[in-house]
Amino acid sequence: MSEQILQKETIVAIASAVVPQQGSIGIVRLSGENALQIARLLFHSPGKQRWSTHRILYGYIRHPQTEQLIDEALLLIMQAPRSFTCEDVVEFHCHGGIMPVQQVLQLCLENGARLAQPGEFTLRAFLNGRIDLTQAESVAELVGAKSAQAAQIALAGIQGKLAQPLRQLRGTCLDILAEIEARIDFEDDLPPLNEEEIQSQLTEVLGNVTEILATADRGELLRTGLKVAIVGQPNVGKSSLLNAWSRCDRAIVTDLPGTTRDVVESQLVVGGIPIQVLDTAGIRETEDTVEKIGVERSRRAAQNADLILLTMDASLGWTESEAEIYQQVQERPLILILNKIDKLTSEIVNNLPQNHKIVKTSAPNNVGIADLETAILELVEKQNIRAANLDMAINQRQAAALTRAKISLEQVQQTMNNQLPLDFWTIDLRGAIQALGEITGEEITESVLGRIFSKFCIGK
Predict the structure, then answer these.
(1) Is 419 helix (H, G, I), strand (E, B) or coil?
(2) For residues 322 and 317, what is the distance between their CA atoms, to the nearest angstrom?
(3) Pseudo-torsion of CA 196, 202, 203, 207, nearest 10°?
(4) Which secondary structure element, helix H or strand E, spans residue 262, and what is its range?
(5) Which among 4, 40, 198, 273 has most CB atoms closer than 10 A?
(6) Whether the Cβ atoms of residue 28 and residue 15 lie closer than 8 Å to each other
(7) Are the beta carbons of 239 and 188 closer than 8 angstroms?
(8) pLDDT tens digits for 89-129?
(9) DSSP label of 280
(10) Nearest CA-CA partner of 268 in 277, 279, 278, 281
(11) What are phi and psi of 407, to 5 degrees?
């Protein structure tokens, strides 16, 4: 991919969602040395509009040979280096839908551009020094953000709030390495190495690395969210609970046991955390073939969920059926939901397992929903993955590299404590420097870049 970029090929892609009969604007983006030339070939602007950088022109897109009118559109011009990719960039802002953008895309391809690969616009921005690798990854995270808080963290990454401290830590390690190597090469010409100061610097760097590394679990929680499964016997109010919680009729509710035959999903945000709620079929023994399949899917959903909401009917309490379901899910994080609390008695509460949080609800009356959300957030906080007040959060790739840096720094300290020669100090110090450089992209291989940007959408 990087060889193609060095050839200055002009790339093109649709940079907006294409939905039939929906969307008011569709965007086709070009980047490269021939972007303006292609735009001039296809776009006709009436009057005396100036073709200069950072201007928007009004006009028509026509086929260059047949003069057939394709669309009435706007053209946005951003000339190098003042563009996202640091190359000439133009955007055709067409009418939304399928046909206008597809026709414009095809014309661009016929006149010298090639179709961009996933993430190639952002990759060019990285390779041209416009952004670093943490900022590039934050672009993808912003596009895929499932909550406002996840979007804020992605924006912080785009602004460099993660890259800046990492560069400072890497810079400190480079300074320490320079001091050590100077003593190796010019031992007789320089004063002795201040080992106490170096130990102090390493301890500070290691502490900062550990602090940043601690954001990994919280960042993952915000990016991927929690998968919560509502399980229980048939007709205990699981679907009613889902409807009350999501404030819409996501699931069919009747008095007949076995109404829910498949897993029903709803996407919610609780305390800034995206939550995928799964309403499962009632778990019971049945001869109905379709219901049997639904019960098996319910069991799989429960095993794959991050949190189980074991729901029961307050009028029935803790029965043998609840006990059987509990045996299957008790190893998972669990909250007990006592639904239909208007029929609740104290004896029923006393018979419940006491090692789990108990939430009392009345789904049709929207009672207990706030208590349920509070209980979920308390459980998340108890597991030390609380998502509140994060300025930055690393992803899995960054966490892996930062873990290697942490291990290398600890090895340097151990080497110093064992009073080994200075050459041994530099080995692990270089490992830490390389690991930190991999995060920001200062030291990165083409194969790693390929893996990172292959996850982007085509137009980014």
Answers:
(1) coil
(2) 9
(3) 170
(4) none
(5) 273
(6) yes
(7) no
(8) 999 999 988 888 999 999 999 999 999 999 999 999 999 99
(9) P
(10) 277
(11) -65, -40
